[in-house]
Give the backbone structure.
Amino acid sequence: MIRSSVSPDQRNWEKKLDAEPLQKWVEEGFVTVEIEVSENLQSIENGLCQALAALSRHEKCNEKSCYGLIVYSPSLAPDLTPAINNINEIKAIVSYGALLERSQKPHLYYLAESGTKSTDNENVYRYPYVTSTSFILPTHKDFSSSAATVAHTR
């Protein structure tokens, strides 16, 4: 999971009943790791490799495990697609926000706009009634419980 921290002025303190996406995945039995994009992150590929190394040490994973990547802030990692394409263990991508460069791996997009688009390797879900793709984050001011629920189940 790649995202930036939510700044205090973007937080929605009133809607805290929903769990953060990372917690929802854990509750469903997935082993997860979060990479926060910050000034300390040397490169996105390095961050991904460190995360995968940590996952491979988990008792439910091993060196032969395959992983999916959920990206909540793709604009913060412009070198994301080449990094993903270089890492064989990442088998699929889900991203909230801008369409990424063409990836060699299956990709699911969630966009805050109307329209349609899908290809053999990509599925695009559009949410015309949300104000940003941060609708998935319960502490963000643009959080939408109904849209977040639909996106999570997809």
In short: The chain has a mean pLDDT of 79. The beta strands are 2-3, 35-36, 67-71, 90-96, 107-111, 122-126.
